[in-house]
Amino acid sequence: MTKPFNWKIFFIIWIAAVFGVVAVIPYTLTLQGTVLQELDLPIPLPLLLAIQIGQNAVMFAVLTALGLFFANRVGLGLPILEAKLAGESVAEKVRAILLPSIIIGAVAAVLIIGLDVFVFQPALLNQLGDAAQSLADGSVKPPAWQGFLASFYGGIAEEVLLRLFVMSMFVWLGSFLSKTVEGKPTNAVFWIANILAAVLFGLGHLPATASFLPLTPLVIARAIVLNGIGGLAFGWLYWKRGLETAIVAHFTADIVLHVLFAL
User: Fold this and answer.
1) What whole-number distance in Å separates Cα of residue 195 and Cα of residue 174?
2) What DSSP line would sit under 74-141, residue for residue?
3) What's residue 182's pLDDT?
4) From residue 134, how far is each of 124, 139, 148, 212 by CA, in Å?
5) Checking phi first, is residue 129 left (phi over 0); if not, alpha (psi -120 to 50) or beta?
């Protein structure tokens, strides 16, 4: 059954995503500091940032609206927020998702770190030599406080983009090809949508990686595999427990990766 569009949910999610966009700015400026110093910007940096925030606000308004449109038609959404806005008690629901989300996010982060340190970094050093040294010695890692702020972008904005919009859209499109007898998308549709969103999640990190590494096939594979681990986990949580669960897991993973691992 298709759920009606909820404007309150739209505005809450949209404002949260825009907050994430603003919060990630210090982290991004640190990563791109060397590049920015070499650029001759046509306008002052603060004005450029304000324009980018405005553009992202418009983009996330559209993505949030479309994401809710698709999610409402395939049984996805934000069950805790929906229940809260309906006047229901959500304490039990929050307790039910909190610990599993934190554990899954933390485990995903540890797997990502392990694969990167013991598999990808040695391979990149062997292939790229000095070009990959900054990745191995951590010189490109922003400080922990910036990583904490950036975690809000990952946990909220990226989940709105990749899960609420992209994954929901793929599930909706797939539902025209494969449905259960009840008229719902099949498990295969959900998994294909989850995998596609996870791959796009990995590819979406390549522009940041390109600021300090050449985009070789190994670098691209690293981005897809490492980010795909988290993406698949967050997508599964979104499918089974709702977007709130995916947000908590993604935020936890980013805290481990960008805060604890940066100390």
Assistant:
1) 13
2) HT-S-HHHHHHHTT---HHHHHHHHHHHHHHHHHHHHHHHHHIIIIIHHHHHHHHGGGGHHHHHTTTP
3) 87
4) 11, 5, 21, 8
5) left
141-159, pLDDT tens digit by residue? 789 999 999 999 999 999 9
By three-state DSSP, how is residue 42 classified? Answer: coil
CA distance linking residue 147 with residue 255, whole number of Å: 7
For 208-234, write each residue's pLDDT tens digit.
777 677 889 999 999 999 999 999 999
pTM above 0.90, yes or no: yes
Query: pLDDT, tens digit, for every residue of 47-77?
Result: 999 999 999 999 999 999 999 999 999 999 9
Burial 75-96 (b: 16+ CB within 10 A, else e): bbbbbbbbbbeeeeebeebeee
Sign of the alpha-carbon torsion through 166, 169, 171, 177: negative
- Integer angstrom CA distances of residue 44 from 25, 38, 51: 15, 14, 11
CA distance 41 to 94: 46
Q: Are 250 and 104 in contact (CB under 8 A)?
A: no
Helix (H) or strand (E) holding 221: helix 217-241
Please give the single-letter amino acid code of residue 49. L
DSSP 24: T
Describe the crossing of helices 243-258 and 91-115 by its angle, rounded to 10 degrees.
40
Euclidean distance between CA atoms 232 and 122, whole angstroms = 25
State the DSSP string of 140-189. Answer: TPPPHHHHHHHHHIIIIIIHIIIIIIIIHHHHHHHTTT-B-TTSPBPHHH
